[in-house]
Design a protein that fits this description.
With 628 residues, the chain is an alpha/beta fold. It is 25% helix and 15% strand. Strand 8 (277-282) and strand 9 form a beta hairpin. The longest helix has 32 residues, at 48-79. The radius of gyration is 28 Å and the shape is globular. It starts with a helix and ends in a 16-residue tail after the last helix.
């Protein structure tokens, strides 16, 4: 900050632009730097001596800053960071401490990077030792004998002329990508083809296939060698199909019955955080990871999930934070351990859908739920494209009810959520569920769906998914988020008819059996309707279909397909975008049954227009009420 205060106004603006800091914040940082370090005249009355001293001090600071920049420039030419090149690298390296409005006495939170032996973060770490990259699509490239970095590409000629010094651009290790069917998949731990799984033959060879039977593989093996058929890494689920084995489906137990992150999951084969899988390190240890890099160190800080801080701060829920113990050193096999698949039958594709439009959530943002519902009916989409629908609201909404129903329900407004300030919605949904139970129309349908008004919901896409999803004898509900504690997010809930019947039958006793006002493994004590529904179904033995959503391991520019993409789920973003405060699904590149959240009718209609083009449907603005 001392050197920052000594810069000219133009240089300050350039640094602010590079670090993407608002100019107002830059000015505030300058004022703080001036008040702390005295790099500008002190406020108040002062004599000529003080002015002379201040000017001399500022000149000295400027000279010192320029000297520092030159030294850093020459240092970067030899070893410096490679996320940007030339003078910007100098500014970046010299300004590692983030510009902040916080007083200098408070330490800014610094993100901990993986150990040198663990796969390195792209463009931020020296990967010379790990020779692998944490981010998908990146390759570790060598600069010299002491430095290498994870980049998408490395061109010797370009690096020589753009100020980043001389690079050999030698590839170290393998690119973080998925394997095709003609190469060994063991170095990569994933497959590029849809529904394919990497299966190991032995410690030296593996192949991407849809299934692997050891006896069949041995009989057809050219060397007459045995196959272990151990699954390595995740199955490719880019198309979200769950029918890769006839009449079988993957299911996962209630997270309360599974293993916390950092502990040995070999016995349970499931994880207490959704989206995490149990991967084997060796014959004595397995642990829960988001992803596993074969033959590399795993289980470090890259596996720590995003956690909302417990509220209220003075007395948060006891276990709001995640416990995490790094794994011991050494390479992993990345053999995936999982609960046994269950038998099921196809259930049909017809949908009973409902939505709930509230006039006032209690938060700072105005609710446009009623407008969204009216607009959706005019466009013949959302719940209105289901075989049967119901709309619930605390206010009267004029709708055409020839193919559905409208019910006005009471919305008890009491406790507010700590972050959004919205009213806790469980009391409202208890009223909604009772009204559905009394209506009985839902009983004629194999699938029941609840979609928020702010979700761009395409029922035909959901029919494609459930047409390939078998239902177990216990009933199923479909998880729609990864890398969180609670994976059944309320913006798009999909139940089999049997699962929904169990929820309705146990509304009363689940309120007594669950701590709905005193959650401990959560950021807030009060249950929302989605958590209540999921936990109540778990109590009644309903099977959970794990999310198959694939986002972070897609080649750049690939179209995203799946069940639901929502702002509330960190697993629906790449690792580069998970920390962004404002983010929405890219509707022009996402073909999912649900896209959330678009609370403004104009933005909702725009998203619908863009995503439907992926199906070859071009909505005419003359026949709709698009206003963007």
């Amino acid at each position: 900050r001392f050197a920052f205060a000594a810069m000219t106004d133009r240089t300050r603006r350039e640094v602010a632009a590079y670090k993407q800091v608002p100019q107002g914040q830059v000015e505030q940082d300058v004022l703080e730097a001036e008040s702390i370090h005295g790099a500008a005249p002190l406020r108040g009355k002062r004599g000529p001596g003080m002015r002379t001293f201040a000017v001399a001090f500022a000149v000295g600071a400027l000279v010192g800053a320029m000297g520092t920049m030159l030294l850093m420039f020459f240092h970067n030419s030899m070893h410096g960071p490679t996320s940007t090149l030339g003078m910007r690298s100098v500014i970046s390296a010299w300004g590692n401490a983030p510009l902040s409005k916080k007083p200098a006495s408070k330490k800014s939170k610094v993100k901990v990077l993986p150990k040198p032996e663990e796969c390195s973060v792209a463009e931020k770490q020296n990967c010379m030792k790990s020779q692998c990259c944490e981010n998908f699509g990146f390759q570790c490239y060598k600069k010299n004998e002491t430095y290498a970095a994870c980049l998408k590409q490395c061109d010797v000629r370009k690096t020589a002329v753009d100020g980043s010094g001389t690079w050999t651009c030698q590839e170290l290790g393998v690119r973080n990508r998925c394997a095709d069917t003609k190469e060994s998949c063991l170095p990569y731990g994933c497959c590029a083809d849809a529904t394919h799984q990497c299966y190991a033959k032995n410690a030296y060879w593996g192949q991407c296939m849809k299934g692997c039977d050891p006896s069949v593989m041995e009989s057809s093996d050219a060397q007459n060698e045995k196959w272990s058929c151990a699954p390595i890494g995740p199955r490719n689920s880019v198309n979200y199909r769950g029918d890769f084995f006839p009449n079988l489906t993957e299911v996962e137990p209630w997270v309360k019955s599974c293993t916390p992150i950092g502990e040995n999951c070999a016995s349970t084969k499931c994880c207490a955080w959704t989206g995490y899988k149990c991967y084997e390190k060796n014959t004595t240890w397995a642990s829960c990871l988001m992803s596993c890099h074969p033959r590399k160190w795993n289980g470090g800080v890259s596996q720590v999930p995003v956690v909302q801080k417990g509220k209220p701060l003075a007395n948060p829920p006891k276990h709001w934070n995640v416990s995490f113990t790094p794994a011991s050193p050494g390479p992993w096999t990345c053999k995936r351990l999982s609960p046994p698949m269950k038998f099921g039958r196809f259930n049909g594709t017809s949908l009973f859908c409902f939505t709930v439009a509230v006039s006032d959530t209690g938060g700072k943002k105005k609710s446009f739920d009623a407008d969204l519902v009216v607009q959706a009916q005019l466009l013949k989409t959302h719940v209105f494209a289901c075989e049967r629908w119901m709309v619930f609201s605390d206010i009267d909404i004029m709708l055409d009810t020839s193919a559905g129903g409208f019910v006005q329900v009471d919305f008890p407004r009491g406790i507010r959520r700590p972050n959004t300030k919205n009213y806790v919605n469980l009391p409202l949904f208890l009223n909604v569920w009772r009204a559905i139970q009394a209506d009985t129309n839902w009983k004629s349908f194999p699938w029941v769906v609840k979609a928020d008004p702010s979700t761009v919901f395409i029922p035909q896409r959901l029919r494609e998914i459930v047409s390939r999803q078998v239902v177990t004898q216990n009933g199923v509900f479909m998880e729609n988020c990864k890398y969180v504690r609670m994976s059944f997010h309320g913006s798009l809930e999909v139940f089999s008819g049997l699962a929904f019947s169990k929820l309705l039958a146990h509304l009363t006793d689940c309120q007594a059996r669950l701590p709905i006002h005193n959650a401990d493994h959560a950021h807030f004590r009060e249950y929302g309707e989605d958590k209540f529904a999921a936990w109540c179904m778990h109590l009644e033995g309903v099977d959970k279909i794990p999310s198959r959503q694939q986002v972070d391991t897609l080649p750049e520019g690939s179209r995203i397909e799946g069940l639901h993409i929502t702002v509330s789920c960190p697993g629906h973003r790449t690792k580069f975008t998970r920390s962004l405060q404002k983010w929405h699904p890219n509707c022009s590149n996402t073909r999912a049954a649900g896209l959330h959240a678009f609370r403004d009718p104009n933005l909702w209609a725009k998203c619908l227009h863009e995503t439907m083009q992926l199906d070859g449907v071009y909505l005419s603005s003359g026949k709709t009420i698009f206003r963007y």
